[in-house]
Amino acid sequence: RTLEVALGDRSYPIVVGSGLYADLPRWLQLRHITPAHSLLVVTDSSVAPHYGKRVLTPLESAGYRVQMSVVPAGEASKSLDQLSRLVEEAIRFGMDRDSAVLALGGGVVGDLAGFLAAVYMRGIRFVQLPTTLLAHDSSVGGKTGVNHPLGKNMIGAFHQPELVLFDVDTLATLPERELASGFAEVIKHALIADADFAMWLEQHHEALLRRDPTLLTEAIVRGCAIKAQVVARDERESGLRAILNYGHTIGHALEAATGYRRWTHGEAVAIGMVGEAILGELVGTARDVSGFTRRLLALYGLPVTLDEPLSDEELLTLMRRDKKARQGEYVFVLPKGIGTVEVKKGVEERVIREALRRLK
Ligand code: NAD
Ligand code: ZN
Predict the structure, then answer these.
(1) At what angle do helices 80-93 and 107-119 cross, to 10 degrees?
(2) Does residue 210 belong to any structural domain of this protein?
(3) Quick one: which of 5, 103, 288, 349 is 20 to 30 A from 171 by CA?
(4) Active-site residue among 37, 125, 248, 344?
């Protein structure tokens, strides 16, 4: 299945399906990345043993000059140190402005390799080969970057890929918890923009959790389509793109308050979406949304209550620091119903406290 993302005066395809790597040379050539151009495949130490060869072999057979660089698996690799090491490898490999970077992995590899491509010789082309469900989100939209010891995603650039090629067969080896976390973002896309998709996710949760390739393809295409539509209308995050942050104001606060150790990002966002659904009901933007939100997320094995003893004061402080917040005012993305949300400024603190109480 192919989906076209249009951004300003250019566009790129998102291809989702089974057994796609065999066709990688053909897809690259459609994007004018030919065997005349060197390729650096960036991947991580968990992905390389499973899929490194599956990507390299067809490229080498098609006559590409290609090298693979492996970073340690995990968030810690989204660092300036790893970036610098990759730049060195790229220089030594003789990469020039016509060369391209292929990011084979989850969001960590995608963000790191995308940023490498954004800054290497002031920008070269790159291709996303996502291998986690969460990466259906991170590979679309052009945000790339690394972390700084003082803050996540503090150093980065907007750089759009030439192509996103999502081979769903790779999801077969993804750890269960990572799969569920990816579904949190798929469900988020449904809840902000597509009620039918939310019902479909409720109906098909068993087959999706069994990793049926046809259904996974469908879920990823629909999730990517929503992300792509929102991004296309607001590439540089001036307004509309904020709706993609549904569940994230509370979710980010939960992650930060627990030092990013208690929950995965998707799990924190799942609790955050329930909290923000409750908040929507309290503020009056929506009626009867939190029950369905909770049920749907729970079907995917995601946490839906706040069962950690965190102080409301700390969470409120973190939420005031949210990127959407201005002048210490609380800003939330709140549901208006299933499949539709709005950005609400100036939400009262006592209402947020009540939502947190009901989330426990
Ligand atoms: P990840 O890339 O660390 O992958 C999760 C784990 O699964 C890793 O240990 C990885 O080695 C392993 N793995 C990956 N694919 C596998 C496979 N097919 N089989 C077996 N193991 C596999 O994490 P993630 O959840 O994909 O991404 C998280 C990152 O994405 C964060 O850094 C976050 O900031 C970023 N992100 C970026 C955007 C964006 O718009 N750029 C959006 C959301 C998240
Ligand atoms: Zn997220």
Answers:
(1) 60
(2) yes
(3) 5
(4) 248
Of 205-209, 222-226, 308-312, 324-328, the poorest mean pLDDT is in 324-328
Quick one: 213 and 333 in the same domain? yes
Active site residue 241: yes
pLDDT for 217 beyond 80? yes
The annotation status of 280 as a binding-site residue, yes or no, is no
Mean of all residue pLDDT scores within the chain:
95
Q: Please tell me the distance from the alpha carbon of residue 211 to that of residue 302, in angstroms, as a whole number.
A: 16
Span from the CA of 47 to the centroid of ligand 2 (angstroms): 21
Among candidate residues 166, 161, 148, 132, the one with its CA nearest the CA of residue 264: 132
Alpha carbon distance 354, 5 (integer Å):
40
Same domain, 236 and 142: no
Q: What is the pLDDT of residues 261-279, one digit of tens each?
A: 999 999 999 999 999 999 9
**Spacing of C-alpha 353 from chain mean position:** 29
Task: Return the CATH number at 37.
Answer: 3.40.50.1970
Which residues does 133 contact at the CB level (< 8 Å), separation at least 6? 171, 174, 178, 179, 181, 182, 183, 185, 186, 216, 220
Ligand 1 atom closest to 152 (CA): 34
Q: Please identify which of the residues 89, 202, 235, 237 carries the catalytic annotation.
A: 237
Q: 73 in a domain, yes or no?
A: yes
Please state the rounded mean pLDDT for residues 45-68: 98
Ligand minimally distant from the alpha carbon of residue 135: 1
The whole-number pLDDT of residue 236 equals 65
Verify that 157 and 290 share a domain, yes or no.
Answer: no
- 227 belongs to the catalytic site: yes
pTM higher than the cut 0.90: yes
Does one domain contain both 49 and 116?
yes
Predicted confidence at residue 234, as pLDDT, reads: 72
Ligand 2 centre to CA of 77 (Å) is: 18
Residue 45 inside a domain? The answer is yes
Please give, one letter per residue, the 3-state secondary structure of 248-306.
HHHHHHHHHHCCCCCCCHHHHHHHHHHHHHHHHHHHCCCCCCHHHHHHHHHHCCCCCCC
